[in-house]
Amino acid sequence: DQQVKQNSPSLSVQEGRISILNCDYTNSMFDYFLWYKKYPAEGPTFLISISSIKDKNEDGRFTVFLNKSAKHLSLHIVPSQPGDSAVYFCAVTSGNTPLVFGKGTRLSVIA
Amino acid sequence: ETGVTQSPTHLIKTRGQQVTLRCSSQSGHNTVSWYQQALGQGPQFIFQYYREEENGRGNFPPRFSGLQFPNYSSELNVNALELDDSALYLCASSFQGGAPNEQFFGPGTRLTVL
């Protein structure tokens, strides 16, 4: 049973527009949420995170929103750039428990 | 500062064989976690090593085992390989007690079992 779901396997966005990637989780005990970006032949790279005490965290072009009541988080990238094309993984954890990852969403930013 | 490195990059084995994958942790890190990423899936936690002992394990059978050495590098051993073991194996290093976002991944070893 998947604890973390990324229901869109792929997303295609025009350069300069907003990319919105979504993630749902099942267990309300999770209290820390992360987004990773992965290029081919590289390991996942940490992008941005948010703790359960916040509902928004912003870092440059990247913003993560958390809706605890809906057990939903999203990553917004504005403006999207061709270099953002990668697979994005949502990951969740609780305290020191291991990261639980979603299946990923492949983002393609078209110039 | 040296990042996380893994060897080999690619490996092809046949069913029933044994394999050893290696990971060197980032400078200053004392904990190594291993993940399996099957095709079309996200990374799945196998186990973690800290102070040369297993410090947490995911839902993987005992034929998946590991070691950590005094220099904090680590090995993942898989015995009696099965076709479903074909995957990208990722290691991640961190400092015990650090924040979740302070875990750094290596580039992975792609294992193909024929």
Structural class given helices, strands, pairing of chain A? mainly beta
Termini separation of chain B (Å)?
Answer: 38 Å
Helix content of chain B: under 10%
Number of alpha- plus pi-helical segments of chain A: 0
Largest interface summary: A-B, 24 and 23 residues
Q: What is the H-and-E element order of chain B?
A: EEEEEEEEEEE
- Based on CA inertia axes, which overall geometry of chain A fits? globular
The ordered H/E elements of chain A are: EEEEEEEEEEE
Helix proportion of chain A: under 10%
What distance lies between the first and last C-alpha atoms of chain A, to the nearest angstrom?
38 Å
Alpha carbon gyration radius of chain A: 13 Å
Strand runs of chain B, count: 11
* Total DSSP E strands of chain A: 11
Number of helical regions of chain B: 0
Oligomeric state, counting identical vs distinct chains: heterodimer
Q: Let me know the largest β-sheet of chain A.
A: 6 strands, mixed
Write the layout of secondary structure elements.
The complex is a heterodimer of chains A (111) and B (114).
Chain A: E1 4-5, E2 10-14, E3 19-25, E4 32-38, E5 45-51, E6 56-59, E7 62-67, E8 72-77, E9 86-93, E10 100-101, E11 105-110
Parallel strand pairs in A: 2-11
Antiparallel strand pairs in A: 1-3, 3-8, 4-5, 4-9, 6-7, 7-8, 9-10, 9-11
Chain B: E1 5-7, E2 10-13, E3 19-24, E4 31-37, E5 44-50, E6 53-57, E7 64-68, E8 74-78, E9 87-94, E10 104-105, E11 109-113
Parallel strand pairs in B: 2-11
Antiparallel strand pairs in B: 1-3, 3-8, 4-5, 4-9, 5-6, 7-8, 9-10, 9-11
Labels describing this entry:
heterodimer, A: 111 residues, mainly beta, 6-stranded mixed β-sheet, 5-stranded antiparallel β-sheet, globular, B: 114 residues, 7-stranded mixed β-sheet, 4-stranded antiparallel β-sheet, 11 strands
